[in-house]
Amino acid sequence: MKTYTVAVLGATGAVGQEMINILQERNFPVGKLVPLASARSAGKTLKFRGEDVTIGLACDEAFEGVDIVLGAAENDIAKQFAPAIVKAGAVFVDNSSAFRMDPEVPLIVPEVNPQDVKGHKGIISNPNCSTIITITAVNALNSIAPIRTMTASTYQAVSGAGAGGPIELMNEVEALGKGETYEPKIFSHQIAYNLIPQIGGEAFEGYTSEEMKMQNEGRKIMHLPELKVSCTCVRVPVVRSHSISVSCHFDVPVTVEQAREVIAKAPGCRLVDDLAKKEYPMPLETSGQDIVYVGRIRPDLTDDNGLCLWCCGDQVRKGAATNAIQIAELLIK
């Protein structure tokens, strides 16, 4: 079997660590792992397949001889090193938002648009976590009728803000239980026992950057250039797995039975939809895995051509790390 030299840029972060775990889980043919990080972490070691691997310093020279680079770093780091990665002949599968809307860069959810991988010129983008989960859940409906508009509300776990998110939530819960105060460091407000209806800065007409990703990225992934999405993104005191409430609107009626049938067969989806038995997607059940759970499928009472549904998925895995490695799997096929 052919093996590949795989670098992980941002190997010590939450997504980078998950990428390394999933490379092992999925038996990706890694001949050599090259974990890369800042000077603060360079020289330390991490475990891969039972062996210690030294973390290298992220620099232009580090990509020589690498076949695939999995990016788990911020936009500025991705932009800094992308030219060196491409020049070295590697393919950069980037989890940041730096290149997502570049028309020269494919934006891939493997269950939805795997064919778009063929158009890469050295860089492939991983979509936003909520976008991945939502599009995986609703894409099958396009086989019945194209989605024209969506109204979505996301309920995003604290781990979506990085490794410090769950720590801050736990620290606040502990402090409040003792009657003490805790000054937020990761979030703009207290997240324990609270909801924060802002993720990202203002981007357009009062919508945040996170909210606009659902429309802009969804259009590109599903090849629906006229798709319109109104989205509200909310940070919730849940440790892991994002949840999304979605209302999809079509040109023709789509029945609940039709939707259930196609979603049940859709790759990457699991239908969990029995209100009488109290069976529906929940963050606790979807954490630690790569399947998007879909349920609460029902008619939209405001639109005869609309359907409502609820979906949940692990945003660190399917919403980031696993999706990137699935893209790498498409590359080596």
Structure, described:
- With 333 residues, the protein is of the alpha/beta class.
- It has two domains: 4-127 and 320-332, NAD(P)-binding Rossmann-like Domain (Rossmann fold, 3-Layer(aba) Sandwich), CATH 3.40.50; 132-314, Dihydrodipicolinate Reductase, domain 2 (2-Layer Sandwich).
- The chain has helices at residues 14-25, 75-87, 129-138, 164-177, 209-222, 256-265, 283-286, 317-332, and strands at residues 4-9, 30-37, 45-48, 51-54, 56-57, 68-71, 91-94, 123-125, 149-156, 202-204, 207-208, 228-235, 242-249, 269-271, 292-299, 306-313.
- The strands form four sheets. A six-stranded parallel sheet has the order 5-2-1-6-7-8, with helices on both faces. A six-stranded mixed sheet has the order 12-9-13-16-15-14. A two-stranded antiparallel sheet has the order 3-4.
- Helix 1 packs across helix 8.
Helices, strands, pairings?
Layout lengths: L3 E6 L4 H12 L4 E8 L7 E4 L2 E4 L1 E2 L10 E4 L3 H13 L3 E4 L28 E3 L3 H10 L10 E8 L7 H14 L24 E3 L2 E2 H14 L5 E8 L6 E8 L6 H10 L3 E3 L11 H4 L5 E8 L6 E8 L3 H16 L1
Parallel strand pairs: 1-2, 1-6, 2-5, 6-7, 7-8, 9-12, 14-15
Antiparallel strand pairs: 3-4, 9-13, 10-11, 13-16, 15-16
